[in-house]
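Hi everyone,

Forwarding the result from last night's run.
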Amino acid sequence: MLYDVVIIGGGPAGLTAGIYVKRAMLKALLLERTGVGGQIIITDLVENYPGFLEISGADLARKFEEHAQKFGLEMQSMAEVSGIEEIGNIKIVKTTAGDFEAKTAIIASGTTPKKLGAKGEIEFTGRGVSYCATCDGFFFRDKVVVVVGGGDSAITEAIYLTKMAKKVIIVHRRDKLRAEKINQEHAFANPKISFVWDSIVEEIAGKNTVEKVIIKNVKTNAISEINTDGVFIYVGLIPNTAFANVKKDERGFIVANDRMETSVRGIFAAGDCRVTPLRQIATAVGDGAIAAVSSEKYIEGL
């Protein structure tokens, strides 16, 4: 079966692209390696997406999915993409669920949380080390947790953790946060949150579960310990683009122009996986719409 468009990734960018291509009456398939919705599924609260003063990430993802289903978008979950090959003008998207042929492909594969690289991180993953507060926060009710990072993800998740934990300690390698000002204000005003500045986590230690983190001050090189029951890590993102043989930057993010065109004709990129100055739901939605319209124009020219 030949599709007009195969969309790789079921987050806001991919689902929006799906809505637009189906409205254009194109035959489209969306592939998602886990569950449709992307990273926003594990976001506790969204309060900066227009039209919704407050909504959980899971509820917003569900609305996106329902909207795409209304227009008849075909979706295939548990399909991890391993590569995109070309035969003439046809793209062959190779996945664990089989190969899919299409005239165009839209890569909206998002990102994965970056590992900290500290000693003990891998050993204690699932035993006190986590990358998702909404997934694992419940297990730390009335306990002390450390959050590593200073961006929006770190700060919003730290605020969320205060609903369960009795104390949240944010460890940041700089002397000021990078998060949005409104998120910073919420964090600074929260009595359960404290900060350790200019510091990095050198080691995560314990017996069967996490018991402490060993930190180093990057200015004085002083070593100290923080007793904690858990460590939540938010130190950056890795793009899910290893399968894509297109031009990327040094970190692996796909280079695309303002029409979401990549270095390969007929392959487009949208959302967090591409080089962009802002990674938000609103920008992902915009990217997805542009990629879909660009795909339609490309197909018309074949």
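The CA atoms of residues 65 and 77 lie 13 Å apart.

Cheers,
N.
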